[in-house]
Amino acid sequence: MHLRSVGELLKETFQEWNQDKASRLAAALAYYTIFSIAPLLMIATAVAGAVFGEEAARGEIVTQIQDLVGEAGATVVQTALANVNQTKTGIVGTSIGLATLLLGATGLFGEMQDALNTIWEVAPKSGQGIWVLIRRRLISFSMVLGIGVLLLLSLFLSTALAAFSSFMNSWIPGLATGLSILNFVVSFSLMTLLFAMIYVILPDVKIAWKDVLVGAATTAFLFTIGRTLLSMYLGSAAVSSTFGAASSLAVLLVWIYYSAQVFFLGAEFTQVYARKYGSEIVPTKNAVSVAANRLPSVDPQNSPRIRPRRRSGFLTKIKNWFGRR
Length: 325
Known about the structure:
The chain is mainly alpha-helical. It has one domain (3-290). It contains ten helices and four strands; from the N terminus they run ααααβααβαααββα. It has a two-stranded antiparallel ribbon with strand order 1-4. α1 (3-19) crosses α9 (247-277), α3 crosses α7 and α3 (54-86) packs across α9 (247-277).
């Protein structure tokens, strides 16, 4: 791919991102995430805790979030997990709580699916019945379990690398740096795999994995850079002084909002790349394409100009009247 092609690809990506109003989609996703983050992390903790223990899984989640958004944002998540875990009710209350937990966790991915359908220019067919809704919820729940499995894999690899580093550090002093690089590569690969799973499974389209992996790796790269910049910004005292007592929740909300924008920018890049250089994007049997219904962008320099009609004056009308005589 030439440099000019890369420039055209990035230009079209930002045009699509602006046309789809990705900032509004990111705001909606951030709102859903705030209410879904506790049940989502509870299910992911339960999956990973089945092997490593619930305390170890919860501690790893809080540590990862603290590395991302700082201590203030991690405090909100830690408090939410503790409150959900300490709630003890009867059978009826437990059943209602479990149903609420599942609906809350899958609601986030339902909103994400609608946003990705907007980016992929497809829409679900109308009048499909309750079974399609159940299917969409099952897909969302599979993504929740997938996050738990990835968390389990991340815990296993982090524990293995830490144990190997402590064992070999006395034998090879410079090995810690190499293992840190390896840990970054593993984390980046898991992040790419997570984005690829979301881009393939959630939207109502059929898209090749080879096209998605390019976009997922680009999204992971943008997410890594954005995470560093956001951590520097959120770590400053300006955010805490601006929001006061609500600074912990505000820090978490700001981080989710800007991370969602990066996520949707990567989705736009994936969609544009697959359409221009990859395989064809085809809607599933439960969806239809809405690409033809979108208004094309108008270039004011190349668009034809419509000249206003000149109104005939009084003398011109008299002249025309005598001319007809």
